[in-house]
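[step 3/7] inverse_fold.run input=structure_tokens len=413
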């Protein structure tokens, strides 16, 4: 009898071990282990190689989950970013959670905290306030979540990656276009939101070009003001003030984007000056494209948003998997040199609008020329634009691809 009890004591652990192995096997079968899942939905984690060459394990099984915390969806441009980014990320097999704060700093921080609490694998943020959102980066990092700044930089924070356009170049293109039209005279600068780092970069680019003319006495900047929250109504008030302060005698206006340019055009129209004063904007909004062909806005700067959204989605996916995004440039944000991927913008005016934003399908020709009367005033359709049209478009696309991987240019704010 005692020998039987001793045998039972020995067998019990063995039985428990066998039962545990059986349950583990059943659980693995229920999880769909092996190669039966869809590609990209549950990326396999490989063990990290010696020297850091392998992939880090995902934070959980299943699809990569990307949080996209946006400043606003109240402007046409950002609706495009949302849809294009979501489509690109989902095509890679990721799940995307989107929230927009519509210019409310506290709300954006709260939305980002919710995403962090829900266990996103990476946070992609379009900051409303470049300084306030540094708190989001810190909280994400404390939870082991990397942060990618989309289009706008976050200042004084350890951002993991910044993907945008060369925003100083945007301002330089604006100034160069207006300078050709007005080499000397009274200039007005209508800025964007003072809280947005991009607004400062656009302005820096503009003054890179016009400062020598200012120093030489050819140009006088007679009005220079920010437009709170990028609102056209605030730009309208600024432009009215500029006209009042100068008795309506203004020679050129550079607006920080197309929405603020719309406010400028409205103020000029009230004084009977629309179409008589050159105006620069940027973003290639539909209303701006229509104003260009109608003659009330001189130019815009086209930033191929599809390229930006797809590149950002690709790099966010890589970061979430622990891969090196291979950023080729660095931008100083006041704290660190942020690894950055900067795409090239394209200047657009009446002479090349068909071969750029229309040819790429950013806007249709019918939309752009909607308000232009028939009878010889329409520009030729893209296929009728001559033998160099396709070549021009291909060159434009190539210019939009970010700088060669070997480029190590540092950009300091």
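[step 3/7] decode complete -> sequence:
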């Amino acid at each position: 009898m005692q020998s039987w009890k001793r045998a039972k004591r020995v067998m019990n652990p063995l039985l428990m071990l066998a039962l545990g192995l059986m349950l583990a096997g059943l659980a693995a079968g229920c999880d769909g282990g092996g190669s039966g899942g869809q590609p990209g939905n549950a990326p396999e984690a490989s063990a990290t190689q010696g020297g850091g060459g392998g992939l880090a394990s995902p934070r959980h099984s299943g699809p990569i989950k990307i949080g996209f915390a946006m400043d606003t969806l109240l402007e046409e441009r950002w609706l495009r970013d949302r849809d294009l980014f979501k489509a690109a990320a989902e095509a890679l097999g990721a799940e995307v959670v989107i929230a927009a704060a519509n210019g409310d700093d506290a709300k954006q921080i709260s939305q980002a905290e919710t995403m962090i609490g829900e266990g996103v694998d990476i946070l992609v943020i379009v900051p409303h306030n470049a300084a306030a959102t540094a708190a989001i980066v810190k909280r994400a990092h404390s939870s082991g979540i990397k942060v990618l700044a989309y289009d706008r930089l976050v200042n004084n924070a350890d951002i993991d990656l910044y993907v945008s356009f060369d925003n100083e170049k945007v301002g330089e293109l604006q100034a160069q276009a207006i300078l050709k039209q007005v080499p000397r005279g009274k200039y007005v600068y209508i800025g964007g939101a003072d809280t947005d780092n991009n607004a400062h970069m656009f302005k820096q680019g503009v003054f890179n070009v016009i400062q020598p003319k200012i120093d030489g006495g050819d140009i006088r900047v007679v009005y220079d003001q920010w437009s709170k929250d990028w609102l056209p109504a605030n730009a309208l008030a600024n432009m009215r003030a500029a006209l009042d302060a100068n008795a309506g005698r203004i020679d050129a206006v550079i607006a920080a984007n197309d929405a603020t340019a719309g406010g400028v055009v409205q103020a000029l129209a009230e004084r009977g000056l629309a179409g008589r004063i050159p105006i620069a904007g940027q973003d290639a909004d539909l209303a701006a494209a229509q104003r260009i062909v109608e003659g009330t806005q001189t130019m815009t700067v086209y930033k191929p948003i599809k390229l930006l959204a797809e590149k950002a989605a690709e790099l966010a996916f890589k970061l979430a998997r622990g891969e090196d995004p291979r950023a080729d440039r660095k931008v100083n944000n006041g704290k660190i040199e942020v690894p950055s991927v900067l795409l090239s913008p394209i200047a657009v005016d009446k002479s090349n609008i068909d071969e750029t934003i229309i040819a790429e399908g950013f806007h249709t020709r019918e939309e752009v020329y909607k308000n232009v009367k028939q009878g010889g005033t329409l520009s030729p359709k893209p296929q009728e634009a001559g033998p160099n049209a396709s070549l021009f478009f291909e060159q434009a696309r190539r210019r939009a691809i970010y700088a060669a991987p070997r480029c190590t240019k540092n950009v300091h704010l």
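[step 4/7] annotate
The longest strand covers residues 219-225.
The two ends are 86 Å apart (CA to CA).
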